[in-house]
Amino acid sequence: MSAETHYLAIFTSDKTGPKWRAWRSMSEAQQAETARIGVAAVAAWEEAHRASIVFQGGPLGPTKRIGDDGAVTDMVNLLTVFMVVRADSHEAATRLFEDHPHMSIFVCDGVEVMPVLGD
Predict the structure, then answer these.
(1) Which domain of life is it from (predicted)?
(2) What are the residue ranges spanned by the domains of the chain?
(3) What confidence category does residue 118 fall into, taking pLDDT thresholds of 50, 70 and 90?
């Protein structure tokens, strides 16, 4: 895409994976200190990328799913945090998240980035 476009970014995290196991093995004091450092790093990242952020988004909570049969179930997925950014290309939008603190300090293991289609 050549024109600046909006992209949905979904941070992912395997709640049963090694990053979460490491987090859970920390003491409360270690978690609090890591969170303090991480929150400051996320704020710095957001300030540095302020011009590209369209919608701040935020953390995602517990998930419920309704199937085509109407049954509602609780489920666990990889979706953790979301935001909307603007960029000149899909690649550029994806590269915004290189070394993001959610992956380098917190427990996310990736960011899935997709164009928001339509007007």
Answers:
(1) Bacteria
(2) 5-115
(3) confident
Q: What is the Rg, in whole angstroms, of the alpha carbon atoms belonging to the chain?
A: 16
Task: Determine the Cα–Cα distance for residues 103 and 117; give it in Å rounded to an integer.
Answer: 27
Q: From CA 43, how far away is CA 28, in angstroms rounded?
A: 22
The predicted-structure confidence for 64-107, as pLDDT tens digits, reads as follows 999 999 999 999 999 999 999 999 999 999 999 999 999 999 99
- What ranges make up the beta strands (E) of 50-118? 53-59, 63-66, 72-75, 79-87, 110-115
Instruction: Specify burial of residue 73 (Cβ count, 10 A radius: 0-12, 13-18, 19+).
Output: exposed
pTM > 0.70: yes
Q: Which amino acid is at 58?
A: G
